[in-house]
Amino acid sequence: MIIVMQSKAAKAQVDEVVGRIKDLGLKPHVSHGEFRTIIGAIGDESLLRPESFAGMAGVEKVMPIMKSYKLASRDFNAADTVLEVGPVRIGGDCLAVVAGPCSVESERQLRDVARATRDAGAALLRGGAFKPRTSPYSFQGLGEEGLRLLRDIGGEFGMPTVTEVLDPRDLDLVIRYADILQVGARNMQNFRLLADLGRIDKPILLKRGPAATIDELLMSAEYILSEGNHRVLLCERGVCGFEKSTRYTLDLSAVPNLQAATHLPVGVDPSHATGRRDLVTPMALAAVAAGAHAVMIEVHPDPERALSDGPQQLTPKAFQHLMAELAPIAQVVGRKLQTQVKPNT
Ligand code: PEP
Ligand code: MN
Description:
- The chain contains eleven helices and 15 strands.
- The protein is an alpha/beta fold.
- It has two domains: 2-63, Alpha-Beta Plaits (2-Layer Sandwich), CATH 3.30.70.1140; 83-338, Aldolase class I (TIM Barrel, Alpha-Beta Barrel), CATH 3.20.20.
- The strands form three sheets. An eight-stranded parallel β-barrel has the order 7-8-9-10-11-12-13-14, surrounded by five helices. A four-stranded antiparallel sheet has the order 2-3-1-4. Strands 5-6 form a two-stranded antiparallel ribbon.
- Strand 7, helix 3 and strand 8 (124-126) form a beta-alpha-beta unit.
- The N and C termini lie far apart (51 Å).
- The model has no long low-confidence stretch (mean pLDDT 95).
- The structure holds phosphoenolpyruvate and manganese (II) ion.
- Residues 102, 272, 298, 308-309 line the site of manganese (II) ion (MN).
C-alpha cells in the first residue's frame, strides 16, 4: 500500500503513519519528494485496512497496490531514479556506455580495452571474473585476480567498474573490488542472492532472464529494493525465441515498456542479445533511440582469441565507430552521454 501525504503534512503526522505501519508488523519506506512525502508499507498487505489510514491526519490518499512490486513502480516514485557511480550518472536524461571484455583475461588485454573504450567515450569498465558458463569445462574466469585487475585498471583510467557476482558466497569478495555488481541473466531469480544484494551499499545491474517477463524482472528488482538498496539498473539482454540466427531475441520494446512501469534506469546489452558482432552496433543505436539509459558492449583487443564470447565482441576500432554514431543519436533523444572528463592516462 502507498500512502500519499498532503503537501503540508507535518513531520509528526508522517511519524504517526509510520508508527502505525510498524505496529502492524510491516516495514515503512518513506520517500520525501519535492512536493510531498510518500510512504510505502512493505509486507503482507492483507494486514492493512486502507480506510484506517485514509482517516489519519495529514493523509491525502491511500493506494492499495495490487502489483507484486511496489518500490520499483512509477506509482511509488514518479520521477526517474538517477544512479550516481563516482562521476557517472545513469538514468533520467543521462546515458552511460559500459564497455569491456566478456572476461578479464590478462592485464594487457584489460588495459588495452580500457584505454580504447575510455578514449572513445565509454564511462564504465566491465569485465567478468566469475563467469556463468554453460559447460563446466569452459573458461570460468580469473576469480579474485580478475577482480583485482578490473579494480586497478578501472582506477587507472577513472572508470567505475561492473562485474558479475555469481554466487552469494562470493559477495564479500566482489564487494571489495567492484563499483557496480551485476546479476547475470541466469541468476535473475536467485532470490537469496537478490536479497543479499539488497543489503549492500553498491548499485546493482540486474539483467533480465532469457525467459523472464517484464513483471518478473520488476519483481526481482523488488527483492533488492525491499531490503533497502534502491540503486538498481535494469538490463534487457535478449530473450529466448524461435529465431536461431541470433543468440537471443533482443526485446527493445522492453525499454519504453519498463520505463512506463518503473522509475529505475533501463539499460540494454546488445552483445549477449545478438551474439553477433555485425548486429551489435545497429542494436546499440536502436537501444539509444528507444530511450535506454545505459548500453553495455563487449570489446576485446583480439576477439578471435577471446576465452569467452568471441563472436560477439567488438574490436576497439569497431567500438570507436559505434560511439561516433551513437553520440548524435543520444543528443537527438535528449540524453547526456556520460564520458570521462579528464583523460589522464
Ligand atoms: C555477461 O554480461 O557477462 C553475461 C554473462 O551476460 P548474461 O548474464 O546477460 O548472459
Ligand atoms: Mn559475455
